[in-house]
């Protein structure tokens, strides 16, 4: 038994009673020496006989069980003391380590969670999203119409399941709190292609795709829990969804997030045989048949596209059906952003490492005399090396710890606000593998950067090779400058692009801060009511007339309107149209924004009326159909002529009528021309738009728009009360200013610019300290040389110029390399830029100039120090 | 006879053996070892004292402060029960090795003859 516990007990008693052990060891050695001297030896002979009392004491200490724990603690205490003694160095090293590691851990986790983590679908790697691209739209990720889908499905052989889907805002009634939800219209093929199994009930199946199929809905587990009480009785319940009685038939598991993670309801898409090509807005999804390659599938869809084009030469040019892996379609637009951030952050980590090594080298040089003294006092080389290593490892561990905290906080912040609208973000967590990796990296960096100075100190002759080492460090600093320039250029481009978006005019003159927007359902009354020729329930129109009147009557509200399109980036419908007397070609009549509005819309947003008149209260279902067009549309189709009195017709059937049944689409008289509004800022804005009065059109999803200086918090309850009093099942969204919506729309570019800007700033600071470090170190190493030069008559100015020239030289080389790299790499940014060329000379020049200036400033301090050196003092050393 | 460097692993056994008949202080142990090995092994303090301390911490030796023959304060080591057991085990092991080596060398000598 004692075999095990006695040594262990010794370890503890050694640790706890260290001073008693030391005293005892010392006394034993003294008594040995005393006995030897008593036997007639001189003190010196006694020392020799013992092999030296100091080494003997050291060997007794090393024989103490658990001595290494003690040693480690001692080293760490010492290291901590050393670090505290130079707070500047410690802070610089810790901050750069924490930022390098933190940014990397956070972004690695993000990339892992968003881009690399497998999609939660059976065989997701063989699921394709299918798009349609044709002239004149020329959108590689364009959408198709029902007719195109049916043509494709009829000719498809490459896929064993094909589906069609589109996202929708859905207004729900028949539940306690009417609400608006993100949903999708989906054919049964969507569920088949994804191999999605319901958690409860059933998914959509082929029987749901028929024109005569009843309306059914599959809901997400979250919706089921939140809204339906999470009970199995929810199956078979009937809700009113977009004015249709809809039966809940299934609940999908939480992992099923298609097409986006906010989609909570899937309605059956009834594939009614279409009477025209359009409306667009649908995408296909399909699962590759076993043995079919992506290239074969793409070849087949291209052939299908060619066949559709041949059958409808009047409608399509250059038609193709591009396919893309599901993952790409989900993360496509953020993949570029994330990889760029990843590259930036890796560059930052590189710079951090290089910088840290430089800092430690310079510090080691500064501490060389101290080390020499300690070595000559008998400290072993291994002991000194260990001490240096423990110092750098302590730095690395502390830095890693701070980095973890930073990464955790950054991810929590991202999850909370999702400022960049990243998909799949809710499941992103700090990845343990990533943490382990970054920590290992930090430790390795600590060991390596600690090892170099440790080796140097233990090799006294190495000081002679200082010049060679400054050359390596100069290279490293040059690399830092190059990377910093690259980041600075990327940042500049993104920033300019962002500013372009942020400050561009929307085409409205009412200040965006005083336009309040509330999402609201226009149609909601009994679906069995007799509809007017435009597909509207007269009760809905009446409800809306009253709500508008009440909203306009709120004191402080100057005007009120409704619209289903708002700048920027929010419109419900875009569709082609016809003008009487003009031959229809797809090139002449591309899909254009259609807005359904009330009379006060132009006044409320401050959109100028250029010709003709606005809508009035007397433009009703029974009066003459009228339309207002944008100036860009007028110039396009009536160059040099007045469009007033001409006739325009929307395409048949309208998008809404896919679900609402037969509605008439008459020719409408053009009664007015208004200023251009940027509805499609992020989608290659054509500025063309046409407007219908809401009593002569049909829309399900509209916003109430108010021109007022009142805060949204004061107005929102009034609107809610008024609307609920008029119609209890009404859906009222949150009230926001147009300015807030605009800010939301440019959140992603803002996020990019901010993050890259932060990285670039860090990179510049690190690069500059790098240059400074090299020069300061060089000056310290060359103290004697500088002293000799000055003693031989070199003037102070010349000495300073020597150092300055070296610094500027490093910076110039780095900037040149950075520009070359940026010229090669920024074209990958092009898709993220708006209004700025990827090789914008102004950005390049500004970045280079700023970096050179900063490097010159950083070189100034060591240059000054060199010039101030006292030749006598440095020679005497 | 010339002093030979100690074989690896023999120091512990020698120390235990030297303390079999009674307690000694550190220098005493060294001298006792020299005596019982006929002066063949000369144990230096640099290896003796750390070994004594290791064995004490392992529980094979116990130590006390006492008076030397010349009335000097000295640290005395003696075997514990565990130490005695250890000595038996080590001695048996060593005899085994020694016999085997002896047999091997005798066989080699026989072949040569």
Can you put this structure into words, describing what you see?
The complex is a heterodimer of chains A (877) and B (113). Chain A is of the alpha+beta class and 877 residues long. In chain A, strand 7 and strand 8 (244-252) form a beta hairpin. Chain A folds into 4 domains: 2-65, no CATH class; 132-321, no CATH class; 333-502 and 747-876, no CATH class; 525-729, no CATH class. Chain A is built from 25 helices and 26 strands. In chain A, helix 14 packs across helix 23 and helix 15 (538-553) packs antiparallel against helix 19. Chain B is of the alpha+beta class and 113 residues long. Chain B has one domain (10-112): Arc Repressor Mutant, subunit A (Orthogonal Bundle), CATH 1.10.10.10. In chain B, 58% of the residues lie in helices and 14% in strands. Chain B is built from 4 helices and 3 strands; from the N terminus they run H-E-H-H-E-E-H. In chain B, a hairpin with a 5-residue loop joins strand 2 and strand 3 (73-79).
């Amino acid at each position: 038994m004692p075999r095990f516990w006695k040594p262990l007990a010794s370890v503890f008693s050694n640790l706890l009673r260290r001073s008693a052990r030391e005293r005892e060891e010392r006394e034993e050695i003294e008594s040995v020496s005393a006995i030897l001297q008593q036997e007639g030896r001189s003190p010196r002979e006694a020392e020799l006989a013992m092999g030296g009392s100091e080494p003997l004491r050291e060997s007794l200490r090393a024989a103490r069980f658990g001595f290494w724990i003690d040693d480690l603690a001692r080293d760490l205490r010492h290291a901590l003391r050393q670090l505290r003694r130079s707070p500047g160095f410690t802070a610089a090293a810790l901050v750069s380590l924490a930022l390098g590691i933190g940014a990397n851990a956070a972004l690695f986790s993000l990339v892992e969670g968003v881009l690399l983590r497998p999609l939660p679908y059976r065989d997701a790697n063989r699921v394709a999203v299918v798009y349609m691209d044709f002239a004149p739209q020329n959108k590689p990720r364009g959408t198709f119409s029902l007719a195109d889908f049916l043509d494709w499905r009829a000719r498809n052989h490459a896929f064993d399941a094909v589906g069609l889907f589109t996202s929708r805002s859905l207004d729900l009634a028949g539940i306690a709190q009417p609400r608006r939800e993100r949903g999708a219209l989906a054919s049964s093929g969507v569920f088949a292609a994804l191999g999605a199994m319901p958690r409860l009930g059933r998914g959509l199946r082929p029987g749901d795709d028929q024109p005569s199929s009843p309306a059914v809905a599959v809901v997400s587990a979250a919706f089921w829990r939140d809204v339906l009480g999470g009970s199995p009785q929810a199956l078979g319940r009937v809700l009113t969804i977009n004015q249709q009685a809809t039966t809940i038939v299934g609940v999908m598991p939480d992992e099923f997030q298609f097409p986006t993670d906010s989609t909570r309801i899937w309605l059956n898409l009834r594939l009614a045989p279409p009477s025209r090509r359009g409306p667009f807005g649908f995408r296909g999804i399909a699962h590759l048949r076993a043995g079919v390659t992506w290239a074969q599938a793409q070849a087949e869809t291209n052939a299908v596209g060619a066949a559709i084009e041949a059958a409808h030469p009047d409608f399509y040019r250059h038609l193709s059906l591009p396919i893309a892996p599901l993952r790409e379609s989900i993360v496509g637009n953020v993949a570029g952003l994330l990889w760029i951030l990843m590259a930036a952050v890796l560059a930052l980590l590189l710079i951090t490492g290089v910088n840290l090594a430089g800092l430690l080298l310079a510090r080691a040089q500064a501490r060389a005399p101290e080390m020499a003294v300690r070595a000559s006092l008998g400290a072993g080389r291994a002991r000194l090396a260990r001490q240096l290593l423990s110092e750098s490892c302590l730095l690395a561990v502390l830095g890693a710890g701070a980095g973890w905290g930073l990464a955790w906080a950054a991810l929590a912040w991202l999850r909370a606000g999702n400022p960049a609208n990243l998909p799949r973000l809710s499941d992103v967590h700090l990845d343990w593998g990533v943490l382990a990796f970054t920590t290992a990296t930090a430790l390795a960096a600590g060991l390596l950067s600690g090892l170099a100075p440790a080796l140097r100190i233990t090799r006294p002759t190495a000081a002679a090779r200082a010049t060679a080492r400054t050359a390596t460090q100069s290279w490293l600093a040059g690399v830092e400058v190059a990377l910093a320039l690259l980041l600075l250029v990327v940042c500049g481009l993104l920033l300019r692009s962002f500013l372009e978006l942020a400050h561009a005019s929307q085409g409205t003159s009412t200040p965006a801060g005083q336009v309040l927007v509330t999402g609201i359902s226009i149609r909601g009354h009994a679906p069995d009511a007799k509809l007017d020729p435009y597909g509207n329930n007269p009760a809905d129109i009446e409800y809306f007339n009253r709500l508008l009147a009440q909203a306009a009557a709120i004191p402080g509200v100057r005007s009120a309107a409704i619209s289903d399109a708002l700048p920027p980036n929010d419109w419900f419908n875009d569709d082609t149209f016809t003008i009487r007397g003009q031959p229809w070609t797809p090139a002449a009549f591309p899909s254009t924004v259609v807005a359904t509005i009330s009379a006060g819309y132009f006044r409320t947003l401050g959109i100028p009326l250029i010709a003709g008149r606005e809508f009035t209260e007397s433009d009703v279902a029974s009066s003459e159909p009228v339309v207002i067009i944008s100036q860009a549309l007028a110039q396009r189709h009536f160059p040099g002529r007045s469009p007033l009195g001409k006739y325009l017709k929307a395409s048949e059937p309208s998008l809404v009528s896919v679900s609402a049944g037969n509605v008439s689409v008459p020719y409408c008289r053009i009664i007015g021309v208004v200023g251009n509004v940027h509805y499609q800022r992020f989608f290659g804005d054509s500025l063309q738009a046409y407007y219908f009065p809401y009593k002569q059109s049909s829309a399900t999803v509209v916003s109430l728009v108010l021109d007022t200086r009142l805060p949204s918090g004061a107005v929102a309850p009034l609107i809610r009360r008024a609307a609920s009093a008029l119609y209890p099942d009404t859906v009222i969204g949150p009230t926001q200013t147009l300015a807030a919506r605009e800010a939301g729309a440019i959140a992603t570019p803002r996020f990019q610019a901010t993050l890259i800007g932060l990285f670039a700033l860090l990179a510049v600071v690190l690069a500059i300290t790098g240059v400074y470090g090299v020069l300061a170190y060089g000056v310290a190493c060359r103290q004697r040389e500088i002293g000799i030069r000055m003693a031989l008559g070199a003037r102070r100015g010349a000495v300073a110029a020597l150092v300055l020239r070296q610094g500027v030289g490093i910076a110039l080389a780095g900037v040149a390399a950075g520009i070359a790299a940026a010229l090669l790499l920024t074209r990958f940014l092009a898709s993220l830029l708006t209004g700025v060329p990827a090789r914008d000379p102004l950005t390049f020049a500004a970045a280079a100039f700023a970096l050179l200036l900063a490097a010159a400033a950083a070189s100034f301090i060591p240059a000054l120090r060199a010039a101030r050196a006292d030749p006598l003092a440095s020679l005497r050393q | 006879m010339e002093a030979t460097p100690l074989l690896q692993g023999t120091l512990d056994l020698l120390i235990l053996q030297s303390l079999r008949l009674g307690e000694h202080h550190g220098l005493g142990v060294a001298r006792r070892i020299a005596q019982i090995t006929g002066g063949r092994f000369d144990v230096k303090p640099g290896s003796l004292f750390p070994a004594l301390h290791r064995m004490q911490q392992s529980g094979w030796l116990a130590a006390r402060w006492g008076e030397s023959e010349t009335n000097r304060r000295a640290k005395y080591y003696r075997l514990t029960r565990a130490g005695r057991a250890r000595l038996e085990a080590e001695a048996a092991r060593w005899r085994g090795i020694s016999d085997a080596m002896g047999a091997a060398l005798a066989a080699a000598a026989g072949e040569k003859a």
